Amino acid sequence: MSKAIQAIRGMNDCLPGETNKWQMVEEVLRRVAGNYGYAEIRMPIVESTALFKRSIGEVTDIVEKEMYTFDDRNGDSLTLRPEGTASCVRAGNQNGLLYNQEQRLWYMGPMFRHERPQKGRYRQFHQFGIESFGFASADMDAEIIMLSARLWKELGISEFVTLELNSLGSNEDRANYRDALVAFLTEHQEALDEDSKRRMGSNPLRVLDSKNKDVQAVLVNAPKLSDFLSEESKEHFASLCKQLDAVGIKYELNERLVRGLDYYNRTVFEWVTDSLGAQGTVCAGGRYDGLVEQLGGKATPGVGFALGIERLVLMLTELEKLNNIRATADAYVVMVGETAEITGVQLAETLRDDVPGVRIQTHCGGGKFNKQMKRADKSGATVAIILGDSEVEQQAATIKYLREKREQQTVPFTDLAPLLEDLTKG
Ligand code: ATP
Ligand code: MG
Question: What is the pTM of this model?
Answer without folding.
Answer: 0.91
